[in-house]
Amino acid sequence: MKLSMIGFLSGFLLVSSLSLFAAGTQETENKMIIRVAEQVPNLITPGAWDGQAFSLNSSIYDYLIEMDANTGELVPALATKWSSPDGKIWTFDLRKGVKFHDGSDFTAQDVKFTIERTQNPDLGHLKAQDFEAVESVSAKDDYTLVITLKSPLPTFPFIFTDYNMAMLSSDYDYKTLGETAPMGTGPFKLKEMILKESALLTKNAGYWQTGLPKSDELRIYFVPDIESSISLLEAGKVDIVPQVSPIIKRRLDGMEGYNVVSPYQESRFIAMSADRTPFSDNKVRLALKYTMDPEILAKACQGVLGEGIFYNETPIVNKLAQYKEIPFRGRDINKARELLKEAGYPDGVTTELYYASDHPYGTAIAQTLKELAAPAGINLELKGFPRDIYLSQYWMNAPMLLTGWGVRVDPSMLLMLAYESKGPWNESHMDDPEADELIAKIRSEVDPKVRQSYYDRLQEIFVERGTVINLQVPYLVPLNDRVQDYRQPVTMLPQLKYAYLK
Predict the structure, then answer these.
(1) 3-state secondary structure of 363
(2) Fold of 2-20+31-58+176-262+476-501
(3) Measured between alpha carbons, how far is 398 from 382 in angstroms, rounded to an integer?
(4) Pairing mode, if any, of strands 400-405 and 349-356?
(5) What would the pLDDT profile of 290-324 be if each residue is shown by its tens digit?
(6) What is the DSSP secondary-structure string of 452-482?
(7) What percent of the chain has pLDDT over 90?
(8) Which among 43, 5, 2 has a CA at the least distance from the CA of 388?
(9) Start-end of CATH 3.10.105.10 domains in the chain
């Protein structure tokens, strides 16, 4: 009865917000309006943003550098060009004539503020570690910024594509207003927001990119679960539903009026905590790896291995240039049992696996892991929770985790974030001095061939004694088939300024 009442209230609130925005439809029926069913966000202020509400933030804010969704190349945005003679001193030329939504000019002072804000200890900025590499930031003039690093970092520009590096105004109070009245230079302005329920965005008529955005309004509804989002899509109440499961894709594939796109793949990391039993012993980690069957895992995700679904034992996804092909060790239950016996578990081992039950692929992967591990004597007790509860209460603090991760354009960003011993999102608590040394070398090495040799050795370490299994799955986005030119590169930021309705 309690769950039914929660569902009723969620549906009531959603219908209320839909009705609120629909009230003005008759007056604005000539406007082009795109409607999105987005996940319910936690924090949305850049720097504290935990990776939800992508459609909202990517429409309100701009970035120094964007990624071309078709080519994967870095392209100018608020920075028109960037250069460095040595990988240590970087000069950024900024776009002139850009204004924030409050009418103030975008200048080098705003970029300086955004960068220095990452080191504010009171904020706990999620890119703080990346920007510790900055020694100084100086505005040569209003539209030229010089950044000096403590040591060479040849991939430094890639850091600015991270979703938490939206460019902010140095004159705006984001501490007070960032959650309720977000403001940037983006293609859409926030007109109205009902916290955790919905947001109405209108076209930024003074946007710096000529001819964009193509639509007049974005109506974003924060929906608590995927099934409710799909119901809204099928009822014609929304046009876009980011991130669904293959089961939903197959359902929509059999219906007219919908198109499901897969702009990229993302990872499902199976993380084994290196500082908690039983995975503090590498022999137990290896035993689990020997129970894996990538083809069965791919089938559990409603796909085929090698066709949109990939598997390895490192954090580097198979399609990146830095990936090193290492032959799969094979499923060997006897070997797994031997390793458990050597680790002091002759009768097997029991541990808990925590995961987000409402996140695409989560439940299917967790159940399959349990079935694959059982014959070796590894008993996984499944602990599934809604994603917001999983992230806020259990993530980073369990012996075994299954977490969805987006791909970082520059893998060194992910390595420093999640696998360097002091990384802020080091969910497996990996603490390997050789790996730390290699991650540091990767970030500073200018010669690409030498840098790749470091990547190669690091991936060998992960196979030998690492803490992760990497299952890569398609990111699926159902669209009303009237939606044209939907773009979303691997930066995970939807570029809705290009989208329009046929």
Answers:
(1) helix
(2) D-Maltodextrin-Binding Protein; domain 2 (3.40.190)
(3) 12
(4) parallel
(5) 999 999 999 999 999 999 899 999 999 998 989 99
(6) HHHHHHHHHHHHHH-SEEEEEEEEEEEEETT
(7) 82
(8) 43
(9) 264-474
State the pLDDT at residue 175. 94
The 3-class SS string of 99-120 reads ECCCCCECCHHHHHHHHHHCCC
CATH architecture, range 65-161: Alpha-Beta Complex (3.90)
Cα–Cα distance, 352 to 271 (Å, whole number): 12
262, 308 Cβ separation under 8 angstroms? yes
3-state secondary structure (DSSP) of residue 282: helix
Q: What is the pLDDT of residue 6?
A: 36
Q: Which residues contact 304 (CB under 8 A, 6 or more apart)?
A: 298
Distance CA 439, CA 97 (A): 39
- Buried b or exposed e, range 454-476, using 16+ CB within 10 angstroms: bbebbbebbbebbbbbbbbbbbb
In the predicted model, is pLDDT for residue 485 greater than 90? Answer: yes
Class (C level, CATH) for 264-474: alpha beta
Rounded CA-CA distance 258/248 in Å is: 12
Q: Tell me what the mean pLDDT of segment 356-381 comes to.
A: 96
pLDDT digits over 51-91, tens only?
Answer: 778 999 999 999 999 999 988 899 999 999 999 999 999 99
Whether 8 has a pLDDT exceeding 90, the answer reads: no
- For residue 13, the model assigns a pLDDT of 46
